[in-house]
Write a structure and sequence with these properties.
Blueprint (H helix, E strand, L loop, with lengths): L6 E2 L10 H11 L12 H21 L6 E4 L2 H18 L6 E5 L4 H9 L6 E5 L9 H7 L4 E5 L13 H10 L3 E5 L16 E5 L10 E5 L27 H39 L4 E2 L10 E5 L4 H7 L3 E2 L15 H5 L4 H4 L2 E5 L6 H15 L2 H6 L1
């Protein structure tokens, strides 16, 4: 039976703003509209206090100090500031280290930021992953034999949901004398995180049921990590990110982090049950179904599955089901996912792969509909003839 609304299973692309988050944001759009940088009057001071309260909630979720949180427009900006800012500061200071290391399965904004450091004389290095999507620590150790400025490894992959061993990789990096950055946009609020041993961490509001257009960068104070700002302005956010802060969005991000801190463990258990139900039922009807990425080291809300028929045909056959073929930030690309290629999938297999993302508002009924609809479409003789 067709649902009376779309069934949304694309929570790695974005999450709906939690109604509780929206409720705390609304007053800051209307009667409490002061500029948080206007310290001369009460409305400005109230906005500043709200921003700082939100900053404290963000910090608490990742084990940081509030003053280590730099507010940004999202994880893409935070990643750019972390990588390019570290490189440009090092160059200005005459630091001889020229190697910047990342991983083949990183988000495009990290891969492109690392590649852009070549313009400033740095040596971008992109390391391969194992077939399960994880980085071999020995591969990183070998790459760090050369003097290295920075290593960037994402905590959770946006396409496969694979979790990297960030604590171990950060320790290896630290022992080599390099900075360690992690893009944690897909991890914050979904798995426990602690910035102990991490120098730089990026996060985004709309990946954890907060608003779009806001994120943050953790920048370690002790030992101090120094970055060059990417653009000039009034010197807000420790001089790293100038511009008037969007108080409603920052307040929303803070509330989203507060809720995640309270509910993350219970939500992970609920999602694990839905994940197992979805995978078990799909596999029962489609014996050739394949899960991509580590089965053990992954967030419970992600299933990256290779089907027996083309993914785009499946999506067209079930328009009420909102799923994707990969990263939303690369959706305009026609070629197969570079992440799946890095895991060793052929182009043909990648073209038969869908990402199903469960989230806070996914119900058991949603999962049952997804199973029914995908199985019916995949077993349709017309689609199988095309495959």
């Amino acid at each position: 039976m067709r649902p009376n609304r779309p069934v949304y299973l694309d929570n790695q692309a974005t999450t709906p703003c939690d109604p509780r988050v929206l409720a705390v944001m609304l007053p800051w759009f209307t009667e409490r509209y002061g500029n948080p940088h206007s310290a001369e009057h009460q409305m400005g001071l109230d906005a500043e206090a709200a921003v700082e309260a939100a900053r404290a909630e963000i910090a608490a979720l990742i084990g940081a100090e509030p003053r280590e949180i730099v507010l940004t427009s999202g994880a893409t900006e935070a990643n750019n500031i972390a990588i390019k800012g570290a490189a440009r500061h090092a160059k200005r200071m005459g630091d001889p280290r020229r190697r910047v290391i990342t991983v083949a399965t990183e988000h495009k904004c990290v891969l492109e930021s690392v590649a852009d450091t070549a313009e400033d004389g740095f040596e971008p290095i992109v390391l391969p992953v194992e077939p399960d999507g994880r980085l071999d620590p020995d591969v990183l150790r070998t790459a760090l034999v050369e003097p290295t400025l920075l290593v960037s490894v994402m905590a959770v992959n946006n396409e496969t949901g694979v979790i990297q061993d960030i604590a171990s990789l950060a320790a290896i990096t630290r022992d080599a004398g390099a900075l360690f950055h992690t893009d944690a946009a897909q991890a914050v609020g979904k798995i426990p995180l602690d910035v102990q041993g991490i120098d730089l961490l990026s996060l985004s509001g709309h990946k954890l049921y907060g608003p779009k257009g806001v994120g943050a960068l953790f920048v370690r104070r002790r030992p101090r990590v120094r970055l060059a700002p990417l653009f000039s302005g009034g010197g807000q956010e420790r001089g790293l990110r100038s511009g008037t802060l969007p108080t409603p969005l920052v307040v929303g991000l803070g509330e989203a982090c507060r809720l995640a801190c309270l509910e993350m463990d219970a939500e992970a258990l609920r999602l694990a049950g839905l994940h197992d139900r979805l995978l078990t039922e799909l596999s029962r009807h489609m014996p050739g179904l394949r899960m991509n990425g580590s089965l053990r080291h992954r967030i419970p809300g992600n299933l990256n599955l290779t089907f027996p028929v083309p993914a785009l045909d499946l999506m067209r056959a079930v328009p009420e089901l909102c799923v994707s073929t990969g990263s939303a930030c690369s959706s305009a690309a026609i070629e197969p996912s570079y992440v799946l290629r890095a895991l060793g999938l052929t182009d043909a297999a990648a073209a038969r792969t869908l990402r199903l993302g469960l989230g806070r508002f996914t119900s058991a009924a949603d999962v049952d509909y997804a199973v029914e609809a995908l199985v019916a479409a995949a077993l349709n003789p017309a689609l199988n003839a095309e495959a």
